[in-house]
Amino acid sequence: MNAPETIQQLVDTEAIRRLALLYARGVDRQDAGLLRSLYTDDAVDNHGTIYQGSAAGYVDFLESTFPLITIGCHYICNHLIELLGPDSAEGEVYALGYHIIPTADGGHTESFVGVRYLDKYRREADRWRFHQRDVVFDLESSRPVAHGGGSPSEATRDDSYSALSGLVFRRSGHDENRPDH
Known about the structure:
By secondary structure, the protein is α+β, with helices and mostly antiparallel strands. It has helices at about 5-30, 30-35, 55-65, 160-165, and strands at about 40-45, 50-55, 70-85, 90-100, 110-125, 125-145. The longest helix has 26 residues, at about 5-30. It is globular, with a radius of gyration of 17 Å. The relative contact order is 0.19.
C-alpha cells in the first residue's frame, strides 16, 4: 500500500468515527437536524424492540421522545472500523447510554444501557454516512431515582452552543457549510 492510500484510509476512518460522535451529540442535544444529516436517504436503523425501520422514521421517533427525556448522555467507547472499498465500510461501536425519564406519578426513572451499534457506512456526495445501524443491547438497567437535575428543554439551550464557536457545535447538522459535511 502506498502513502496516499494509507492517508486516505486514515482520513476515511476518522470521518466514520466522527459519525458516532456526532450521533451522540445529536441525541443528547436533541438536534434532529444533525441526526438527519448523518444517514443516507435510504438508511435503516434497528434499535432492538424500541424501533425498527427507516432512519428517517427513527429520527422522527426520537424527536417525539425529546420532550420526555430529562437527561440523556451517550458515551462512545470502542469503535472498530473496516473499510471495504472506496465507498463502503462497516464497524462496531460500543456505547453507554444514561437517561433520566419522568414517570407518570411525578417521579423519575434512571435508565442505563450498554449497547453495540453494528453499522454499515456508505460514502455519498463525498461524505460518510450511516447506511444501516443495528443495535444490540448487552446491558439494560432501570430503577427509580430521586432527581434534581435538568429539564428536557435544557438540551437545546446547552452551554456548548454559546461557549464553543466552531461550526461543528452549532445547532442543526443540515448546514452544508459545517466542516463535518
